[in-house]
Amino acid sequence: AQSMATRNYAPLQAATGTPAVRLTWVALKLDPELCPEAVAARGGGLAGAQRCVVRAADQLASRLTGASFRATVLTEQELTGALATSSCANPMAITQAGRSASTGRRTEETARTWRCDDRRHTTYWIGRWPQLGGSGAASLPQFVALLTSLPALATNFSLTMAPAERQSVTLTGHVRVTGRSDEELVAARRELERTARGVRTGLVRLDREQVPGLLASLPLGGTR
Predict the structure, then answer these.
(1) Nearest C-alpha neighbor of 48 from the set 56, 219, 63
(2) Is 60 exposed, middle or buried (0-12, 13-18, 19+ CB in 10 A)?
(3) pLDDT digit of tens for each residue in the chain (224 aa)?
(4) What is the pTM of this model?
(5) Coil, helix or strand for 210?
(6) H/E/C letters for each residue in 128-194?
(7) Residue 204's CB: how many other CB atoms inside 10 A?
(8) Phi, psi (5° rounding) for residue 130?
(9) How far is CA 30 from the centre of its chain?
(10) Cβ contact 147:155 at 8 Å
(11) How many CB atoms lie within 10 A of CB 91?
(12) Side-chain half-sphere of 82: how many Cα atoms within 13 Å?
């Protein structure tokens, strides 16, 4: 059953397209093989790699703060909480699982969905991007806002940036919608697909690859 707050907010969300809550995480992933000198300069091995990650995270947080964002480096406990929030885990189910002696499986993957407790997810890969930032075209923030302002329990947009040849950068995007039931999820999928077609965006539903899709949509810095 939906809460009173959810029922009251639904008409406002439908009219304005404004999500009740919007959270943003930035995940950094370090490949020690790409920066052996930096790792060695900080002691080498696992400890040196960890110091490199911490330094990079502090530098990024400082740059974001300088750009008028409020950014903090998460602790281990806060990171665990961020992953739980991003995966839309049900807090009540987590509490009950912690109290129960049962070790039964709480997740299930089908061709089009991944389920954890009573939350169902479908992830898409962005196979074709629309024109962004040009004359009369939407900006990337506007595009993200459009795809994440759907009438769903939650919508997740992940953008992974990775180094490429000739000092260029590759971009990979995933969109995940979440519902409390199969019917709610199907409705959210249809709305997402309709919205994407309206801005000439090609979404590829990751049939039979929903678990890798879920991992790609979490703040983990990509799956590779």
Answers:
(1) 56
(2) middle
(3) 455 545 555 555 555 556 778 899 999 999 999 899 999 999 999 999 999 999 999 999 999 999 999 999 999 999 999 999 999 988 887 777 777 766 678 899 999 999 998 999 999 999 999 998 877 788 999 999 999 999 899 999 999 998 888 889 999 999 999 999 999 999 999 999 999 999 999 999 999 999 999 999 999 987 76
(4) 0.86
(5) helix
(6) ECCCCCCCCCCCHHHHHHHHCCCCCCEEEEEEEEEECHHHCEEEEEEEEEEECCHHHHHHHHHHHHH
(7) 14
(8) -80, 170
(9) 19
(10) yes
(11) 9
(12) 18
Q: Cβ distance 194 to 203 under 8 Å?
A: no
The residue ranges of every structural domain in the chain are 4-26+71-217
- Selection from 124, 128, 116 nearest residue 202 by Cα: 128
Strand partners, 94: none
Residue 84 CA to residue 49 CA, distance in Å, equals 26
The confidence score (pLDDT) of residue 7 equals 56
Query: How far is the CA of 20 from the CAs of 9, 10, 14, 92, 154, in angstroms?
Result: 8, 9, 11, 20, 10
In 3D space, the residue among 219, 109, 136 whose CA is nearest the CA of residue 174 turns out to be: 219
